[in-house]
Amino acid sequence: MKSHVQAAVIGGGVVGCSVLYHLTKLGWRDVVLIERKELTSGSTWHAAGGFHTLNGDPNIARLQGYTIRLYEEIEAISGVSCGVHRVGGVTIASTPERMDFLRAEAAKQRYMGLDSVLVGPAEIRELCPIMDVSGVLGGLYDPNDGHLDPSGTTNAYAGAARKQGAEIYRNTRATDLKQRADGTWDVVTEAGTIHAEHVVNAAGLWAREVNAMAGVYLPILPIEHQYILTENIAAVAALGKELPMAIDLDGESYLRQEGRSILLGVYEHDCRPWAVDGTPWDFGHELIAPDLDRLLDKLTLGFRRYPCLKDAGIRRIINGAMVFAPDGNPLVGPVPGLRGYWVACGVMAGFSQGGGVGLTLAQWMVEGESEGDVLGMDVARFSGWCSPAYTLEKTRENYQRRFALTFPNEHLPAGRPYKTTSAYDRLRAENAVFGVVRGLEHALYFAPRGEPAVETPAFRRSNAFPAVAEECRAVREAVGLLEVANFAKYEVEGPGAEAWLSRLLANRMPREGRVVLTPMLSPKGRIIGDFTLARLGPARFLLVGSYGAQDYHMRWFLRHLPDTGVRVRNVT
Hints:
alpha+beta; 3 domains; FAD/NAD(P)-binding domain; Alpha-Beta Plaits; 572 residues
């Protein structure tokens, strides 16, 4: 075992092995991976193994496209097969709202350079002959979707990383993390201590425990997920071709072929968080006792959609824990306030996103920033404010809504109200409709008297449109009051404040008593934030920006802060 490394990755699932591979790909060869048991122990080994590009966040969809294209590369380098079945995938819609969603996703995917196309019921039936397309309005088909071998893929990442200089220590549990005064880390393991310049927590089911070693709460939670494997089905065996992956949004199920049988998974509303108080260290390649009764309503819908399943026996029920973050997206990036400490956790769709997550984190570590916009995955979005109780409520909600239709600007109800301002009760009495950002309730608009203070979300104009139009006219023609608690505020002062802000921000500095709007750019020209900048004095400024991105922005400020001459304070 090495005594000093550039980076130590903790966790030998698909995500940890992807991070390790991408670090070597970008030139860091003095890197190691520490795995408590064997590679894939945890969630990876029992995964259904599906991969697809569809994601409501186009930036994450782009990373999923990268992940899917990556498999040939790691197979070629490692010599290990990923067991890829690139059979295509079709997502079906049975309501006009679902079709609106798929049309929007098709447009976004074209923009991101992906290959999805809209298809009608007849084409869907041709693609998936065992599907009953009654009530289906259309679907989104991607020829690059499919499924793979979870163990083979993880070992292909690991093998490719080894061939490029990385080392992997199996059956070696990390027991403690100790940060030195210079920001580097001592990674204490059962086999000795490794001094690491950087530590990556990719520990999956044990990511909470690893983060606790670093003194930081990580808002993720394992939830039980079940799928069934049928006995051999004659109709499937007689097809002469492999079925595509199929997702029925209204039935909340996914399906793929497994030999001559079918794998069917569902997302039930009666879900069960698992190991809420902590994952046992001796858990590994075990499964959780199945509970088919919880799935019956969703399985019934699945059997209607695929009639050949009605008479098929169930060969096996898989019930394993999957890790969710409160909003369902991964938690990736540098943890605010901990130099040299990184996370790649909560990657529920590891075989769709694992490659993109590994690339993103490796670019961040090696080059200082990632190539694309990954704010939707940034760990900073939950930094310092998210409690275990809130995490429990939101992860349950996210699991229950895995295939639910989420509209633009929709604010989901679980865990609310979590934080309120002093004006909350007064605004509520005025029939305010509230949204939420970073756990804080804030007024979106005021519903007319006598009407429910609820927005009915839609892809087109919602019921909020007339009320918002009236408010806009009132402010334009007269005057209005705006609560700005849901904006972040930063005080910047000191003799070097103007020069520092001039380097960070794209606009010129305002004169004293004046205000300008300005983006904040990275060295590569990426937009990091958009601010209102007020000059309060010769060497004193106020920045106003996104409330939800305040930890992300504060981390950026502190990273670029000079040793002397500038003070930055979050006064939100």
